Design the sequence.
């Protein structure tokens, strides 16, 4: 049976036929796009039904988030969000909370609803916005209910008396620990590791992990996504991650597929890179319909962008502190060589311009040793960069997968406190990467940014930061480029452009249904476009009915 | 509390060799945690003999790695009969970060950070565009710096590379290292535990000092086991000081360091060094 979906307009992202009004689908695949008339050769021959439920809406290719972390999300999503930025969630919008007084108010409010478990965990506190947090401050809100306040950066948490009691953390045990401030209930860095150890039964318990992954399922659907990539399988524990994702996502009512990319460091642990490659090469034998490993691997150069440990070229950070490497340049090169020579698409986490320099130098060396084309070497995150690096990336055939949300959340504070305006305003330099013809996509790295491709597109097109300031107009992209980034380019970066990412005959019938035309709307409204439904392999998954 | 010793140093500097030495000489079981990605080079035969154990870990920032492997290992070691923990930091680790496990994980205490430097490659690394800062930090954050494979290079030559970075640390030639002083059990930083047999104190001064006065001080305090550092005299000349219970040497140095002496001693405390 053929289903024909009609729409006000179908934005195909297929340059040869950019717009259509009808798309015919059979067995989860697209037969043809065009008009009801042009589809007649199919329709006159085969049984079909006309589906008009989207006739006042816009159909775009199913949105793709090519880099997020389901396991991180699973830990975070069961917590209660109180954040400086607005977070839209399927179960309600978390409003922007911008002062200490407001923060305490929100926390009080949250605690007044008695639906929480034994331990209440809230995420999103940021001292810059919400003032310093301490045991006594939380106690003054509620000292009986065990409460944990987890910092937005994940690098610190704070507990009240009841939480310390519940987790059995005593002053005598921790009084010498320099990264635990018992008096103020604060645990940071290594101290945080200790606290998490104690929290494990609450945050990594199998039921909680499952609950988190189920919540992520809603989040992914809510963001209009039909494909996501888990860009570091093994982050927590490969077997548990695979099993839980299989149980929860390899089911008929799951509206998306998950592309799996192995975390090479985890796979290597204690072995040679060649051993790691062997293990990774065997992973596709465990593929199923929705969950697939392919010839891809995740490598790392420098430290986290949010924690300000990206490695920077001169002149570095204003305060003179140094970034971090996640592996030595020698090890990075050795690992890259093994995977490059075996034909892998290599995804490299790079945040700073010095981290990027290492990736570019290494890629250049690989191209000299063993030239490859359309090789899928992808820069992940793309925080700081120089125009010259963008030029080299283009010549070397690399792709870029940018976390453009950095511009929105961090460009203002990084202008003032970290690297200054010139470099902060041009973070995620994607206008340049489009100009250089680099295949560029956008990701959320959820939970680093909301898992909403339209939000990423909005930031990329407008570059408006949280203070409302325009950051580097020259690096803005057009709405057309923005939509390419979250559809066809994302598919290319994942090596799936022959199957998804545009609406044309032969591809999978993955669609996202919008209430407005993202290419003709005022660009400042892109993030607010209502998503009516998604279609995954021909099956409709409505969002409005929820 | 179990003492934690961090062995830092860039890739290929000789950390594993040092750890193997520790394993050979350990009189009671020690645990070795290797925080690196590559192949495990620790000689397992050495471990079988002792009741020691080695664990390979990958640690990372919580953004890239959800679990804290080092923390989890330390937690599990609490229930074992272990007299010391040695953590081999990865080639790019900042030693301070790893040392924080000794300072912050309940039940453990920081013994020392030892950074191993390869004499053959240090000059190149300190100019490397990617890792110069990392290597510099590894040296600066150490309690003791061990120079490895310096045989072919005169010590003076090495100081030329390192004087501008090693201003706060003791330098020892790897080959004449007296392991006892750096054993993971005995070298304990001042104030970290009560049952310390060795303590460290650091004397610094930006005023000129007198060699003879310092010698006198050492002689009158027999609990001083070892001292090393630089002194600067009235006329601006700089000396490298090396003191063991049997001798006290001052060798002229071309460097221009301010006075800084690291003193290792036994017992409760030292009278202040007044000049
Ligand atoms: Zn990353
Ligand atoms: Zn990531």
Sequence:
């Amino acid at each position: 049976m053929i289903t024909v979906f009609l729409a006000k307009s179908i934005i195909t992202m297929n340059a040869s036929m950019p717009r259509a009004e009808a798309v015919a689908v059979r067995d989860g695949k697209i037969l043809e796009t065009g008009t009801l008339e042009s589809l007649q050769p199919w329709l006159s021959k085969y049984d079909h039904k006309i589906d008009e439920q989207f006739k006042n809406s816009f159909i775009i290719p199913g949105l793709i988030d090519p880099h997020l972390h389901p396991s991180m999300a699973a830990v975070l999503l069961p917590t209660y969000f109180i954040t400086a930025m607005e977070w839209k969630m399927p179960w309600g919008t978390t409003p922007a909370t911008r002062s200490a007084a407001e923060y305490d108010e929100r926390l009080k409010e949250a605690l007044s609803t008695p639906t929480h478990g034994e331990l209440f965990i809230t995420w999103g506190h940021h001292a810059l916005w919400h003032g310093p947090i301490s045991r006594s401050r939380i106690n003054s809100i509620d000292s009986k209910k065990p409460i944990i306040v987890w910092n937005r950066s994940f690098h610190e948490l704070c507990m009240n008396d009841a939480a310390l009691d519940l987790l059995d953390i005593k002053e005598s045990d921790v009084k010498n620990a320099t990264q635990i401030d018992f008096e103020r209930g604060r645990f940071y860095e290594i101290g945080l590791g200790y606290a998490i150890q104690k929290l494990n039964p609450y945050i990594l318990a199998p039921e909680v992990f499952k609950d988190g992954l189920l919540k992520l399922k809603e989040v992914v659907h809510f963001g209009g996504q039909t494909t996501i990539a888990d860009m570091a399988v093994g982050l927590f524990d490969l077997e548990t991650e695979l099993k839980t994702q299989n149980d929860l996502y390899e089911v008929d009512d799951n509206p998306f597929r998950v592309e799996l990319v192995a975390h090479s460091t985890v796979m290597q642990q204690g072995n040679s890179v060649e051993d790691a490659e062997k293990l990774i090469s065997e992973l596709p034998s465990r593929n199923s319909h929705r969950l697939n490993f392919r010839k891809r691997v995740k490598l790392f150069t420098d430290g986290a962008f949010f924690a300000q440990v990206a490695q920077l070229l001169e002149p570095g950070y204003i305060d003179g502190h140094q970034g971090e490497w996640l592996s030595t340049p020698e090890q990075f090169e050795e690992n890259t060589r093994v995977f490059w020579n075996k034909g892998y698409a290599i995804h490299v986490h790079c945040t700073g311009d010095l981290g990027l320099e290492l990736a570019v130098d290494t890629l250049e060396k690989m191209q000299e040793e063993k030239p490859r084309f359309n090789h899928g070497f992808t820069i992940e995150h793309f925080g700081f960069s120089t125009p010259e690096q963008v030029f080299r990336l283009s010549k070397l055939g690399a792709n870029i997968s940018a976390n453009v949300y950095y511009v929105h959340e961090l460009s203002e504070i990084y202008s003032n406190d970290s690297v200054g305006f010139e470099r902060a305003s041009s973070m995620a330099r994607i206008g340049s990467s489009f100009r250089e013809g680099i295949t560029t996509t956008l990701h959320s790295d959820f939970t680093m940014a909301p898992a909403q491709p339209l939000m990423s597109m909005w930031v990329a097109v407008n570059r408006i930061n949280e203070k409302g300031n325009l950051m580097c107009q020259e690096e803005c992209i057009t709405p057309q480029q923005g939509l390419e980034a979250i559809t066809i380019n994302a598919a290319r970066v994942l090596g799936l452009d022959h199957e998804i990412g545009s609406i044309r005959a032969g591809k999978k019938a993955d669609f996202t249904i919008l209430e407005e035309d993202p290419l003709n709307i005022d660009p400042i409204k892109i993030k607010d476009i209502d998503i009516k439904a998604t279609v995954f392999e021909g099956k409709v998954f409505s969002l409005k009915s929820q | 509390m179990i003492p934690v010793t961090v062995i830092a140093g860039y890739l290929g500097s000789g950390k594993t060799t040092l750890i193997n030495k520790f394993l050979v000489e350990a009189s009671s079981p020690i645990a070795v945690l290797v925080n690196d990605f590559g192949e495990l080079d620790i000689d397992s035969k050495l471990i079988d003999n002792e009741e020691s154990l080695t664990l390979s870990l990958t640690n990372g920032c919580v953004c890239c790695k959800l679990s804290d492997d080092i923390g989890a290992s330390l937690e599990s070691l609490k229930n074992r009969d272990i007299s010391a923990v040695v953590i081999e930091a990865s080639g790019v680790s900042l030693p301070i970060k790893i040392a924080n496990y000794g300072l912050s994980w309940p039940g453990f205490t920081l013994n020392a950070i030892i950074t191993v430097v390869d004499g053959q490659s240090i000059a190149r690394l300190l100019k490397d565009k990617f890792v110069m800062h990392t290597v510099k930090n590894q040296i600066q954050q150490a309690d003791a710096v061990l120079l490895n494979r310096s045989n072919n290079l005169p010590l003076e030559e090495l100081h030329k590379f390192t004087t501008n970075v090693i201003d706060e640390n003791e330098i020892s030639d790897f080959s004449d290292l007296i392991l006892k002083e750096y054993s993971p059990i005995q070298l304990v930083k001042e104030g970290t535990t009560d049952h310390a047999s060795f303590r460290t104190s650091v004397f610094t001064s930006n005023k000129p000092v007198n060699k003879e006065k310092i010698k006198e001080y050492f002689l009158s305090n027999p609990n001083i086991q070892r001292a090393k550092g630089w002194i600067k005299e009235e006329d601006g000349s700089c000396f490298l000081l090396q003191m063991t219970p049997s001798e006290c040497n001052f060798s002229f140095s071309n460097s221009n360091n301010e006075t800084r002496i690291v003193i290792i001693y036994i017992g409760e405390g030292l009278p202040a060094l007044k000049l």
Remarks:
- The pocket of zinc ion (ligand 2) is lined by residues A 67, 69, 231-232, 445 (CB under 6 Å).
- The domain at 80-115+117-203 of chain A is CATH 3.10.310.70 (Diaminopimelate Epimerase; Chain A, domain 1).
- The mean pLDDT of chain A is 94.
